[in-house]
Specification:
By secondary structure, the chain is of the alpha+beta class. 22% of the residues lie in helices and 29% in strands. Among the domains are: 51 residues, no CATH class; 86 residues, Immunoglobulins (Immunoglobulin-like); 224 residues, TIM Barrel. The strands form six sheets. Strands 9, 19, 20, 22, 24, 25, 27, 28 and 29 form a nine-stranded mixed beta sheet that branches.
Length: 549
């Protein structure tokens, strides 16, 4: 029997890189035979023996059978009822690669399902994390796919904020419309306008607009089909509740000014809601000066579930030495918002995750609005406008001052004193809760003490100002926090506190932005600059009217 023919080198066998001969790095025990020129002058007997030896060695290499995938079933149940419950699943193999579930909405590292799912998995070890928004406890497990083919998990609700009158929503969703109901159910989310037009993209460009833009399902959940985004050089504005998209597809990075579309939106529907998507965008000072903005994204998409977007993209950069990564961007966001409030601007905070663009799940960053026992879409926006809200990407922080909700305005001739009560629920460890008064940490209250007393103590104002309460989790990867919307205080004749330093901060910001405008056409440049010049005058007037340092 003749031995089989063999290639002339290890490279030809795939055992070493092309051009390398003589040594086999993968199977060293072949080095005495592989890579030798088999046609070199040797005796015929010796040559035949070499070929036979190699052939026998190859026959001795064990053949590893590839295990066939097995069909695995996962069931996710509500612990209180024993019924299947929609949820989000992060399933990863031993190498950390996310696993997709056939037929279920998938994004980045997770899928959602209606309460059960079947999928083929190769035998081996996997990690699984199961979540359903911050009102439920998290599940984390390591499993091995071998003999066991059915897995059952029970999700336990920690708190039902709807029973307290709080209803969750988020303002930055880029997911497919056909998946939105399951996505919201899986996150226990009640309000989620869907962005269907964004710069050059317009889902409705070749379609008839839906007759029904607001969809109400499951009794207490709503989504709107006409949310949009104008995201260009100055940053991003989000538009809600319009009857049709704005004509922004031909806009360039700088032209026309975003204020053109703001005015068009107001003319189309004066009830349009316009959100400043993040506080550090370059046009923020311009937008605020216009008086046309409804909210600002305090819990925004730079805060992701297991990481931070550590820079400010093309926005106004922070001083990294003062606010280092990974949490610096989160603190910078807060700092800017406090400057806005200190400058006398009363703008409620909002929240958005940008799921479908950035790694977040839908509803990771969310805003809870106090509506009472019955939710309607209109009442949710009314509550958000009034600032009866808190934003979060984890902790659930409910605060009342003299039994009043955030957004309330306290008044007094000489002094205002408030008693603060709070409730905190969190899946993450938190050491203390902070009271922020006029932009500074006024007091820290240990969470252990808060759990015992439910009290944050008393706060006294002898002049006008504002305060809010926040809680920041002990998480080294991402800025996980909750913050109430501000409470306002008016004492004496000066009803509004205007800090000269904060007004100057926003004036300097406006002038710095003007110097950055990138337009060569004189007419276009002059048109865009006109809006910034108006903003410059607004902030100059604020500096002149300042009644606090």
């Amino acid at each position: 029997m003749s031995p089989p023919d063999l290639p002339q080198s290890g490279a030809e066998r795939g055992l070493m890189p092309a051009g390398q001969t003589g040594r086999c790095p993968r199977w060293p025990w072949l080095n005495n035979t592989v890579g030798r020129d088999m046609m070199s002058p040797t005796s015929l007997a010796g040559h035949a023996m070499q070929r036979l030896t190699v052939s026998l060695l190859f026959l001795a290499v064990p053949i590893v059978a590839v295990a066939e995938p097995v069909q695995v079933e996962f069931a996710f149940l509500d612990k209180a009822t024993g019924q299947p419950i929609p949820c989000r699943v992060h399933l990863k193999d031993a190498a950390g690669k996310p696993v997709k579930a056939p037929g279920q909405p998938f994004w980045f590292d997770h899928f959602v399902c209606p309460g059960s799912v079947q999928l083929p998995l190769e035998p081996g070890k996997y990690t699984i994390e199961v979540e359903r928004g911050p009102e439920y406890g998290r599940i984390a497990d390591t499993i091995e796919i071998k003999d066991k083919r059915r897995f059952r998990y029970e999700l336990q609700r920690q708190v039902d904020l709807t029973k307290e009158g709080w209803w969750s929503g988020e303002l930055h969703v880029h997911r497919p419309v056909e998946a939105i109901e399951l996505l919201m159910q899986a996150e226990d989310l009640h309000v989620a306008p869907v962005i269907t037009w964004w710069n050059k993209q317009n889902l409705w460009a070749q379609k008839k607009l839906p007759d029904k833009l607001l969809v109400h399902f499951d009794g207490n959940s709503f989504y709107h089909l006409m949310a949009g985004e104008d995201e260009r050089e100055g940053g991003a504005l989000l538009f809600f509740n319009l009857p049709k998209p704005l004509a922004i597809t031909k806009a360039t990075r700088e032209y026309p000014s975003p204020m053109k579309f703001v005015e068009e939106a107001r003319l189309m529907d004066d009830d349009v809601w316009i959100d400043i998507e993040k506080p550090f965008w370059w046009d923020v000072a311009l937008w605020l000066a216009s008086g046309r903005m409804n909210s600002i994204g305090l819990a925004n998409n730079h805060m992701c579930r297991d990481r931070m977007s550590e820079g400010e993209a093309w926005g106004k950069a922070r001083l990294v030495e003062r606010l280092p990564a990974p949490l610096g961007n989160g603190f910078w966001t807060q700092d800017i918002y406090y400057h806005v409030l200190n400058a006398g601007m009363r703008v409620p905070p909002s929240a958005g995750s940008a799921s479908g663009v950035l790694p977040n799940p839908v509803g990771y960053n969310r805003v809870y609005v106090q509506v009472g026992p019955e939710l309607t879409y209109e009442k949710w926006w009314q509550g958000l406008r009034a600032g009866r809200s808190f934003v979060t990407n984890g902790p659930l922080l409910r605060v009342r001052a003299n039994d009043k909700l955030p957004g309330h305005i306290f008044t007094g001739e000489r002094e205002v004193q408030v008693q603060l009560k709070a409730s905190l629920t969190s899946n993450d460890p938190i050491r203390h809760v902070e009271i922020i008064k006029n932009g500074q940490v006024e007091r820290k209250i240990a969470v252990a003490e808060l759990a015992k007393t439910g009290s944050l103590g008393t706060l006294t104002f002898n002049e006008s100002g504002w305060f809010l309460v926040r809680a920041i989790a002990d998480n080294k990867k991402t800025f996980r926090f909750a913050s109430t919307a501000p409470f306002y205080v008016e004492v004496g004749a000066d009803k509004q506190r205007i800090s000269k330093a904060s007004a100057q901060f926003l004036l300097d910001w406006t002038q710095e932005r003007m110097a950055r405008i990138k337009l060569d056409d004189p007419g276009q440049r002059g048109e865009v600059l006109e809006h910034h010049l108006q903003a410059e005058k607004f902030w100059q007037d604020r500096v002149a009217k300042a009644n606090a340092e």
